[in-house]
């Protein structure tokens, strides 16, 4: 009935209900979310040799990413990046990204990608950003034409093993009023600390720009500490290893270390990607994922997909799995979603409008159906 509390609709929730719930996605890689058929089409166009035929390609990506071999996991991205070297390819991938996310019930997304990896065929950095933005604009127009709501922004990523972070940071600032909302660094954490890119982060601070940093996925607490205290990250990409600074006694008593306490006190958002974390070994299973404890402790937890193609996932799959593992209902899913919207690099008034006009009414409608 109208006005029913979300607390009265506990989990586990059906996949259909989760799909229809409005969702917010902060950590999604453009080159990790292609449709298998699109990879095959683009490979044929540019003459790139693929490791499997079209009908087996989706399974090959999932199995390679889930093989336990870092080399095979990284190989999957060599194929997606290879077919994303033309403006038309980038536009198609970006447009389909919007279409797929909107069909999954996502209403706001920040999609990250590394422009420096898409200039091998001669495009400039400005040209590749423009091509992706065109695809996003086309996708949003198609969603709105059907009466849907979808807002998307680019996060420009620099690779931590490369030396172009200052250049990419300047690119993000140059495009920030034209579809780009922030900056990120990604790549192997071990051996490539974020402090190697301090010039870029100091520049972003001076320009009043937002940025997130991949940290605490595999390397642990030092990576998180540097990202926050040296670099000043607004959000943590993954951040799952913050649990290494939390002690749970035999009687269930919890003690937070200094870093974990700081992260919680400051409401620093954690961009958690459950299925990806299991795949990379950062968590042993969904049921054992630290997201359960971090949610109980009320860290600023958000739920994300990371690489939809490689993990064979979607926001619906991620949230359905969490509902099944932890009994989360609509109240918890709305909490994750509002957390993410509060943490987005969108202007405050736009964030508030999506929360008040789209997210909360969407969950209230689902709760009323359940009643």
Automatic annotation (TrEMBL):
UniProt keyword annotations, A-Z: Hydrolase, Metal-binding, Nucleotide metabolism, Zinc
Active-site residue list: 217 (proton donor)
Free-text comment on the cofactor: Binds 1 zinc ion per subunit.
An example Gene Ontology biological process: inosine biosynthetic process
Cofactor: Zn(2+)
Listed GO CC annotations: cytosol
EC number assigned by the record: 3.5.4.4
Keyword tRNA-binding: no
HAMAP family reported in the protein's UniProt record: A_deaminase
Protein name, UniProt field: Adenosine deaminase
Source species: Marmoricola endophyticus
GN (gene name): add1
């Amino acid at each position: 009935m109208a006005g029913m509390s979300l607390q009265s609709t506990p989990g586990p929730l059906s996949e259909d209900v989760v799909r229809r719930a409005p969702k917010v996605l902060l950590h999604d890689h453009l080159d990790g979310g292609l449709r298998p058929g699109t990879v095959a089409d683009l490979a044929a166009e540019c003459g790139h040799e693929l490791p499997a035929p079209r009908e087996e390609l989706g399974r090959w990506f999932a199995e390679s990413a889930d093989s336990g071999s870092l080399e095979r996991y990284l190989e999957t991205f060599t194929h997606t990046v290879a077919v994303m070297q033309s403006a038309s390819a980038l536009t198609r991938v970006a447009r389909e990204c919007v279409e797929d996310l909107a069909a999954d019930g996502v209403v706001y997304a920040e999609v990250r990608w590394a422009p420096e990896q898409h200039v091998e065929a001669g495009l400039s950095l400005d040209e590749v950003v423009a091509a992706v933005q065109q695809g996003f604009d086309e996708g949003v127009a198609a969603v709105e034409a059907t009466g849907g709501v979808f807002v998307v922004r680019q996060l420009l990523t620099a690779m931590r093993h490369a030396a172009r972070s200052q250049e990419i940071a300047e690119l993000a600032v140059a495009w920030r009023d034209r579809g780009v909302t922030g900056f990120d660094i990604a790549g192997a954490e071990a051996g490539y600390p974020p402090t190697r890119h301090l010039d870029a982060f100091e520049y972003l601070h001076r320009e009043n720009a937002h940025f997130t940093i991949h940290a605490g996925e595999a390397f642990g607490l030092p990576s998180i500490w540097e990202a926050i205290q040296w670099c000043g990250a607004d959000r943590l990409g993954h951040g799952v290893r913050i649990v290494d600074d939390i002690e749970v006694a035999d009687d269930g008593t919890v003690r937070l270390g200094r870093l974990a306490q700081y992260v919680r006190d400051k409401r620093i958002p954690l961009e958690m990607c459950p299925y990806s974390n299991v795949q990379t070994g950062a968590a042993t299973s969904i049921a054992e994922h630290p997201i359960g404890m971090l949610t109980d402790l009320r860290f600023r937890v958000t739920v994300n997909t990371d690489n939809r193609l490689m993990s064979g996932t979607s926001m619906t799959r991620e949230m359905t799995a969490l509902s099944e593992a932890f009994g989360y209902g609509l109240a918890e899913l709305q909490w994750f979603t509002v957390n993410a919207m509060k943490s987005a690099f969108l202007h405050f008034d736009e964030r508030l409008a999506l929360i008040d006009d789209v997210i909360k009414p969407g969950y209230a409608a689902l709760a009323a159906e359940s009643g």
